[in-house]
Amino acid sequence: MICILSRSPGYGDTSMDVSAKFSRDSDVACRVIESEVLAVNPRDSLIYCFNGVASRVWQLLDGAHSVEEIIAAIDGEFEGDKSSLRDDIISFVEELSAKKLIEK
To answer: How far is CA 16 from the centre of its chain?
Structure first.
């Protein structure tokens, strides 16, 4: 099991288009357990565990919200440094995209 929403190598070095909209891959199975999401990627058979903030980001990755809108929503729902929050969310979305858990 892999828990995500931590600072990975290259943290903060991003050029993601925050106007992009992503949606969860329909082949990825997921379940909500308490405040965490468990997602299974059929491509690598790994189970991904998302904490409370990452779980909320996952819910908002529905194709209707841009990354910028997700950042604004999370900023309104959770406390923390806005700059760090933004960097963390962008890194998380990039990681999900690299692992093919979401798509544009």
So the answer is: 13
- What's the pLDDT at 14? 56
For the entire predicted model, the pTM comes to 0.85
Residue 65: Cβ within 10 Å count: 18
List pLDDT tens digits, range 62-81.
Answer: 999 999 999 999 999 988 88
CA 24, chain centre distance (Å): 10
> Tokens standing for 30?
């997921």
Strands laid side by side in the 46-50 sheet? 2-4, 46-50, 36-41, 29-33
In the chain, the percentage of residues whose pLDDT exceeds 70 is 87
22-103: CATH superfamily: Coenzyme PQQ synthesis protein D (PqqD) (1.10.10.1150)
Domain locations in the chain? 22-103
Answer yes or no: is pLDDT of 29 > 80. yes
Cα-atom radius of gyration of the chain, to the nearest Å? 13
Instruction: List, in order, residues 6 or more apart from 13 with CB less than 8 Å away.
Output: none
